[in-house]
Amino acid sequence: MENKFIDSIDEFQSINNILDKIFVSHSALPNQVFHKDFKDYLFEEFDYSMTEYFWFKITELAKTTNNDFIIMAVLNPSPLNYYFKEFGYFNCAKLKVDISSIQYMDMLNYSPEDSPADSIFINSYTVVWASPSMKWGIWAERDKGVCVVAFNEKMLKNSLISIFNEWRLIDSTVTDWIGLNYNNFTIPLEVKDKLFMNYNK
C-alpha cells in the first residue's frame, strides 16, 4: 500500500504544480480556496468524502472529464514538513479510476508503521481531490465539516450536475453543517457572510 503513495520529491512537486493552479493552498474557508477560473460551487459534508460512495461519484466525474486517475492530497498536516520528514513518503497519491471503493477506503485507512493515528482517515484537516487535466477540484476541511467542488469555467456544469445531485449550493443547510463546529453550534455571522460572498456564484 505504501508504494501507492508518492515518495519522490520530483513527482510530488509535479503534482503540487497542478494543485497550485486549482487551489489557493494557503487559504481556508470561509475565504476563497479556488483560483478564479473555478466556479459553480457545490457543497457536501466532510465525512461524506471519507466514504465508498464518494469514490463512486468522483470516479464517475473523472471518467466524464476523460481522466484516468485522480489526485488525492492532504494539505494539512504538511505533506513535506511533517509527513515526508517523519515517514519518508507523502500523504498524497494518484488514484487510478478503476480501483475499487474498498481499495479507496484502504488508502484512507493506511497508516505508517507504528503510527496508526497518521492515516488520512484520522489525521487530515485539509484534503483535496483534483482532476489532473485541471477541469475540477474538491476541497475538504475537517474543522469546518464540509467539502466543496468547483469546476473550470470552461466546463458545462449542467453536463455534470447529475453526478452531484445530492450536493448543495451554499445555503442555510450548508452553514448549519459548518455551525456545528463552533461554540453553541452557531456559525458566526462574519463567517456566514464571507461564505456567501465567496461561494454564491
UniProtKB/TrEMBL annotation:
It comes from the Bacteria. This is Uncharacterized protein. It comes from Metabacillus lacus.
